[in-house]
Give the backbone structure.
Amino acid sequence: MVKSRVLEERLIKIYKSGEGFFWIGGPGQEAFDVPLGLLIKKGQTLDHDWLHLHYRSTPVLTAMGLEMIDGIRLMKNLVTDKHTHGRNFCNHYAVREWNVAPITSPIEVQYSMAIGTAVAQKRHGGEGITIVTGGDAGTAEGDFASCLIWASRPENPLPILILVEDNKWGISTAYLGQHGEKNISDRAKAFGIKSAVVDGNDVEKSWEAISEAMDYVRNERKPYFLQANLSRLYGHSSASGASFIANEEDCLKTFENELIKLNLITKEKIQKIWDNFQAQSLEDLETARKESPPTAESIWDFVYADSENADWRKF
Ligand SMILES: Cc1ncc(C[n+]2csc(CCOP(=O)(O)OP(=O)(O)O)c2C)c(N)n1
């Protein structure tokens, strides 16, 4: 959780110091996303989980093994960025060997793309499931409705874990001004999809809720809808200033205080964890500063199938 937060705060500083163009990410989602990342069956076949993530999913990938320098290289659009070769926005990862589909900027399209891998996994059998996540406001998009319909067809239900990470904001539009339903997960009931709501700022509750949902989808080969209510700690993106929002719950502080109270860790040990990751992030930034952006001539690489470097196995 600390590693992901330190990375995000480093990326924000990179943006604010003029060394990056744009920041968007997931500070405030660590209590839900880190358990999710740890519980994923990671790998590259249909027997492993398929992930259709969101631009705030940095803690999921950090828990799966993403290194801070990977996030810094993408933020700085360097040719060494192994996810997109410096071509996509900050925190828009793509990891072939972990079945992580490219993260998109058009919101909620991942919910209709997820149907594809879920259909493939249903046909294939086995234990692999499809996991899709996104924000609350985007659930107004048709792609989200398509996902609910395809996931729950009575003659062919899909092994898909549908997640919504509800921070009660869509850029600057408040949830209460848009949604008549109390919980977005209530929509699942109309489709006969099993559903639950969890406090996504609570690590233990999140771990339990995700475990239960995953077990159900893995074994029953049917959909499950889990909504996590959580914080958006630095606003929407750099476009809204990317400053810390002090009146939202900070799940890291909550978890640290709980661990201290239970005598499981000391304040000093916690500080050391933060200091180590801070030092690592600075070292990684120094490394990235010596690396180059892609050349202008490489702009068509990976766009057309016959272009010189179009072999995606290189990723
Ligand atoms: C299809 C589409 N419409 C609009 C936008 C502009 N846009 C970017 S983020 C965003 C709000 C998304 O809010 P939510 O789904 O709640 O996710 P959050 O950013 O709060 O995690 C919007 C409207 C977009 N990127 N794509």
The two ends are 27 Å apart (CA to CA). The CA atoms of residues 148 and 190 lie 9 Å apart.
